[in-house]
Amino acid sequence: MTPLARKRLGKVLLNAAGILVFLYAVFPVYWMVSTGFKEDDQIFTTEFIPFPTHFTFEHFERVLTEGVANNSIWLYMRNSAIVALGTVLIGSAFALLSATAIARFRFKGRSLFLVTLLVVQMLPAEGLLIPLYMMVKRVGLGDQLLGLIVTQVALTLPFGVWMLRTFVAAVPTSLEEAAWIDGAGRMTAFWRVVFPLVAPGLVATSIFSFITAWNDLVFALYLMSGSEGYTMPVALQYYFGQKGVDWGAIMAGSTLMTLPVVIFFLLVQRRMVSGLVAGAVKG
Q1: At residue 245, what are phi and psi to the nearest 5 degrees?
Q2: Cβ(96)–Cβ(161) under 8 Å?
Q3: What is the pLDDT of residue 32?
Q4: Which of 18, 111, 148, 168 could staple 103 via S-S, CB 3.0–4.6 A?
């Protein structure tokens, strides 16, 4: 086999492997959406039915109209949106400031602080449930969405700091110094020079924080004592009843729950692309 043929064969194998990985990742999402449109007799069958033969909106209508635990499904969607967006805004702000301080300044205990962040990120979230629960209750934020936001910020902040630290450190200090020479202050140089170049990392951490807070089940279940404070993952648990599992409603609710994540990604992915080509160089 010639080198050119081997090269082409390698590309074909890589493309085939990429397609297999893509199908493996997308199939659960497809099955969730398709099951939400299937009738009950097609859901509770041992026969493999890849496509719904008769589309039905019964499950979506039941989720949207009947609600869960005497509350509208929109209440749980609103709670999830408040927690997720609050986590993104607060967590991103603290992560950006912390990452900038670590990347730009040298201070005592800096290395220990970075190692501590890494160790905390390695701990399972369930292991932090009891101490975070006690801290939230002690400061008077128990059974409040703000307490859940603070908890999610604490869980996602270490990753955000580590991610943004790399982006801030990659920005040459000469760009800031050039802005200072042109008469810009420290804050102006940061927002007009450094911030556009750090924007892709900020978007990446925002997506991670949003998905983590949006999909959280354990903390939302244990920190909220009343159903009015539950988020969407907790609300979907009510379809697991003693008499059986309403898979149609679960798949329909999960599909509705996935849409805001997709919309959020579509909204911020443009900022990721624009941040990569943001101008630090004129001309």
Answers
A1: -115, 125
A2: no
A3: 92
A4: 168
pLDDT in tens, 248-275: 889 999 999 999 888 888 887 766 555 4
Cα 83 to Cα 65: distance, rounded to the nearest angstrom: 23
| Tokens encoding 85 | 């967006």
Sort residue 186 into left (φ over 0), alpha (ψ -120 to 50) or beta.
alpha
| Radius of gyration of the chain measured on its C-alpha atoms | 24
> Do 253 and 235 form a contact (C-beta atoms < 8 A)?
yes
Alpha-helical (H) ranges within the chain are 3-36, 40-43, 58-66, 73-104, 110-122, 129-138, 145-170, 173-181, 186-189, 195-215, 218-223, 232-236, 247-276
**Residue in the structure block whose two tokens are 């805004």:** 89
As given in the structure block, the two tokens for residue 205 are 């951490």
Q: What is the pLDDT of residues 89-102, one digit of tens each?
A: 999 999 998 888 88
Reported residue count of the chain is 283
C-alpha 22/C-alpha 97 separation (Å) is 36
Distance CA 171, CA 174 (A): 9
pTM of the model: 0.83
CB 129 within 8 A of CB 205: no
Contact 143, 229 (CB under 8 A): yes
Instruction: Please say whether the beta carbons of 78 and 229 come within 8 A.
Output: no
- Burial (CB < 10 A; 0-12, 13-18, 19+), residue 126, is exposed
